[in-house]
């Protein structure tokens, strides 16, 4: 049982954690820069109490979950620093981890041994505390990126916390995390945003969206994600993301070359390889949920 | 009531048309190069009878629906030519239309006035007659691309045919059709294939698919489409597709530039524009289904 859980940033992720943590926390408080958001979270019963001040929020907390946008983490660590306590454990839910570790290094000189960066691979195009869902993390992976100096007992406590939210907890090297997520999440988001924007401009000139079907809807679903959140992620993870954007551009030029030359065998091999890759991914996903 | 409907190519599209046409056709026959496929279509009750020969299939038919892969249409028109009858109407279901018109020009010297090219914007990653579904065209758009020489009564009969399959029939200029579909369908497919293939290779080296989430699943859904069908489409519609691939590459390079320079305002504007475009598309889709 956790006596007091403090959630900083009560949006979809923070709110969903709060809803699920209800079963194993005596008290859940929220801290949020937006007073309206705190009121809504209280009114919805997501948190017991909201605090505008970090100091009040984290006082006597056993676990602090940082669930703010990625870009807000560094200033927040500055605010937390004077109230940082060795008997509490800290984790975050940022989609990128290298930048969080660097921020902690800049703020504290060394990453505090009781701060275990984390990333729940769960989300939705929806955002905000209204969309909070106690089942959001159920069966989903949470990647923790502990550091050589992380305290084993803090790591164990943070692992147990995420596991009680329903997640399957794994550990990964910080750099590897950011490369993997750049490939499976950040690159697809940038592609979807780029396509939706480009076709939106075409639609202004000639109606094209009315002739788009379900495939287009699925392909661009992630383009409905929160622009602010994604600009933060793109900035935070720009090094691996840029490398992948370059790789994708080269891959696309290769396929365009096959289209240009009308190379039937080449296109067949290319599309078949793509289909096989996706089938492999699907099989893995089914196993994940089995 | 149609006395005899002949469907050439009894796959998902042809089979779905047959299932729905059951209610307003006395007889439905199928022609398919694959005898096993014809047997399955008969056994499933999708068609009344299968013919290996085009001659037998189209004999005394009132309506002929060509539902073969796009790449098979020109040789098929050659086979049909000796048996072409002025009292029958012909339509097709190819995803590209310029190439079908060109094929008809090459085969007949002029597009026959009773051949009205069409494109049902409906489909699925599934394929084959087993996936045939009487509701596949319900509420979906079918774009007909009649030509200046098209016979008005043939156009009226083909429009009525598609409408009775449940579709909302529209007319469009051939070239405009191919440009619109290159943007809303062919380009997204090529992007999804390219990404799935590229990440499949990465997954061979380091497991990345296990950390991919629902966004990735949706984004790459169309990469599970039939490679043969899509290589045909890419070849048939290569001119507008290549132009859009070039535009996309330029758009992607612009976004990469914003990521590289860490331009928060620029990225926010870009992603917001993308989100607004997709929201517009979604609203339109809802209205379509209203």
Name some characteristics of this structure.
homodimer, 290 residues, alpha/beta, Rossmann fold, 6-phosphogluconate dehydrogenase C-terminal fold, six-stranded parallel sheet, three-stranded mixed sheet, 11 helices, 53% helix, globular
Task: Write up what this structure looks like.
The structure is a homodimer of 290-residue chains. In chain A, strands 3-2-1-4-5-6 form a six-stranded parallel beta sheet. In chain A, strands 7-8-9 form a three-stranded mixed beta sheet, with helices on one face. By secondary structure, chain A is of the alpha/beta class. The model of chain A has no long low-confidence stretch (mean pLDDT 94). Chain A is globular. Chain A starts with a strand and ends with a helix. In chain A, helix 5 (98-108) links the parallel strand 5 (89-92) and strand 6 (115-116). The longest helix of chain A is centred in the middle third of the chain and has 32 residues, at 174-205. Chain A has helices spanning 12-21, 35-43, 54-58, 73-80, 98-108, 152-164, 174-205, 214-219, 227-236, 238-261, 264-289, and strands at 2-8, 25-31, 49-51, 63-66, 89-92, 115-116, 118-120, 141-144, 168-171. Chain A has two domains: 2-172, NAD(P)-binding Rossmann-like Domain (Rossmann fold); 177-289, 6-phosphogluconate dehydrogenase C-terminal fold, CATH 1.10.3660.10. Chains A and B meet through helix 7, helix 8, helix 9, helix 10 and helix 11 of A and helix 7, helix 8, helix 9, helix 10 and helix 11 of B.
């Amino acid at each position: 049982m956790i006596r007091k859980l403090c959630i900083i940033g009560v949006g979809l992720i923070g709110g969903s954690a709060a809803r699920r943590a209800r079963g194993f926390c005596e008290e859940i408080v929220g801290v949020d820069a937006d007073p309206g958001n705190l009121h809504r979270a209280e009114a919805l019963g997501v948190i017991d109490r909201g605090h505008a001040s970090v100091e009040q929020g984290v006082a006597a907390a056993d676990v602090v979950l940082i669930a703010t946008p990625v870009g807000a983490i560094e200033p927040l660590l500055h605010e937390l620093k004077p109230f940082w306590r060795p008997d509490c454990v800290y984790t975050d839910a940022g989609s990128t981890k290298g930048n969080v570790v660097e921020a902690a290094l800049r703020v504290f000189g060394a990453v505090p041994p009781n701060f275990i960066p984390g990333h729940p691979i769960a989300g939705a195009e929806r955002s905000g505390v209204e969309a909070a869902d106690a089942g959001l993390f159920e069966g989903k992976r949470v990647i923790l990126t502990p550091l050589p100096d992380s305290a084993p007992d803090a790591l164990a406590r943070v692992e147990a916390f995420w596991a009680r939210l329903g997640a399957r907890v794994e550990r990964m090297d910080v750099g590897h995390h950011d490369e993997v997520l750049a490939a499976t999440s950040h690159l697809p988001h940038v592609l979807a945003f780029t396509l939706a924007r480009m076709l939106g401009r075409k639609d202004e000139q000639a109606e094209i969206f009315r002739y788009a079907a379900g495939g287009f809807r699925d392909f661009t679903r992630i383009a409905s994600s929160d622009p602010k959140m994604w600009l933060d992620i793109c900035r935070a993870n720009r090094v691996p993301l840029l490398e992948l954007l370059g790789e994708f551009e080269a891959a696309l030029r290769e396929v365009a070359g096959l289209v240009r030359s009308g190379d039937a065998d080449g296109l067949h091999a290319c599309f078949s390889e793509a289909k096989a890759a996706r089938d492999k991914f699907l099989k893995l996903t089914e196993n994940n949920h089995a």
